[in-house]
Design goal:
The protein is mostly helical and 255 residues long. 84% of the residues lie in helices and 0% in strands.
Length: 255
């Protein structure tokens, strides 16, 4: 309840600052619409926002699931096989030096203007944080636990699945939280490059027609997707890690 109240207060302050900026600058509506104008656009264009929003949401969710799965498997392979670390880790780092904007036109060319190219873009954005977070967690297992397992005759595979992977889950979920926050970026970049539906396509379309209130409405819907997705992943992470309770609330109680 307190969290909802804080969110409502924060949202109210942001809207008030937005409206104050509109009054202070006196910019016309086609450059900076007021919050009321954007709310009116959201109400009038609700079916349009819903249709395009569902497309973007599907791309985000499928990309998130595929990116997390691919990143998790990659981290396990890197942790299990030394040869994989030697050959794949440099390629993984080099791949992140290439801007995703440079890859988007190629993905659209190879995979077409449908959802596949947008999902692939979302996977590219999600893959690296999940892989690095889980691999870092797998590398930082308590040496005492590993020594004890080896003393008891556990195989490398058993050590990985029974000790290193459970110990790395907090780091893994941290990577998934980051992935949930950045997943909309990949989908929207793909829609900007080439698409016929989705919130990114709607933003470009509204911008070309000077419907800035509709563009702002699409941005707000996309932000709502990102916040909701992050909150859902965070709640799932808390349920998946019952042995690691969050100590932050106790610290907040004693400022």
């Amino acid at each position: 309840m307190k969290a909802l109240l804080r969110a409502a207060v924060t949202l109210s302050v942001l809207v008030a600052c937005w409206q104050a900026l509109v009054w202070a600058t006196g910019l016309p509506r086609y450059l900076l619409p007021s919050p009321l104008a954007v709310a009116d656009a959201m109400q009038r264009q609700a079916p349009l926002l819903w249709t395009h929003g569902l497309t973007t949401l599907a791309e985000i969710l499928i990309g998130l699931v595929a990116g997390v799965a691919l990143g998790g498997v990659s981290a396990l392979v890197l942790a299990r096989f030394r040869t994989a670390r030697r050959w794949l880790m440099p390629l993984l780092l080099v791949s992140q030096a290439i801007p995703v904007f440079a890859l988007a036109p190629l993905l659209v060319l190879w995979l077409g203007y449908g959802m596949a190219s947008k999902i692939a873009m979302a996977v590219l954005v999600i893959y690296f944080p999940v892989t690095t977070a889980l691999f870092d967690g797998l590398r930082r297992t308590d040496p005492g636990w590993l020594d004890l397992a080896r003393t008891m005759g556990a195989s490398p595979a058993a050590i990985l699945w029974s000790i290193r992977l459970p110990a790395a889950l907090p780091a893994f979920w941290s990577g998934v939280r980051v992935a949930a926050a950045v997943a909309p970026i990949g989908a929207v970049i793909g829609e900007w490059v080439g698409s016929s539906s989705g919130l990114g396509y709607l933003m470009l379309h509204a911008n070309a027609r000077m419907q800035i209130d509709l563009l702002f409405a699409a941005v707000l819907v996309l932000g709502l997707f990102a916040v909701t997705l992050y909150a859902a992943v965070d709640a799932l992470a808390r349920r998946a890690l019952p042995w690691q309770p969050d100590t932050q609330p106790a610290e907040d109680a004693n400022p």
